[in-house]
Task: inverse folding
């Protein structure tokens, strides 16, 4: 175990995901951006504040089944967003690999720009 309590290193992978918030069921899933990932969890940038202990669901843009995670921390950033640490309910080695393959630095940078400008994805449009 490392000094910060993690049993494995996080990989610095930036990729878009959908956060599905039970509290805002009338709202479409939020398009969020990961900062790092591991088989035990991830850190994401979100427009919405969460509380430690809350349960979150998220999906990859490819539409995979939702993964369930628990909020470990939520820190405000200087850009009116939040860094959220999520711990997966069950470790899942490589859950990010299929989506991360096509993500290259330029693509991730464009997604980060779109995300910072407040783009909210309407998942219902993508399902039709």
Result:
């Amino acid at each position: 175990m490392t000094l910060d309590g993690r049993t494995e290193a996080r990989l610095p992978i930036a990729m878009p995901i959908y956060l599905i918030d039970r509290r805002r069921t009338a709202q479409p899933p939020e398009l969020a951006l990961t900062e790092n990932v591991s088989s035990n969890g991830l850190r994401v940038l979100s427009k919405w504040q969460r509380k430690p202990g809350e349960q979150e669901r998220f999906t990859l843009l490819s539409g995979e089944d939702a993964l369930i995670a628990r909020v470990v921390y939520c820190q405000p950033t200087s850009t009116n967003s939040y860094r959220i640490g999520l711990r997966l309910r069950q470790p899942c080695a490589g859950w990010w690999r299929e989506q991360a393959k096509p993500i290259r630095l330029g693509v991730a940078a464009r997604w980060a720009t779109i995300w910072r400008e407040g783009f909210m994805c309407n998942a219902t449009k993508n399902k039709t």
In short: The longest helix spans residues 105-116. Residues 118-128 have pLDDT under 50 and may be disordered. Residues 14 and 68 are 19 Å apart (CA to CA).
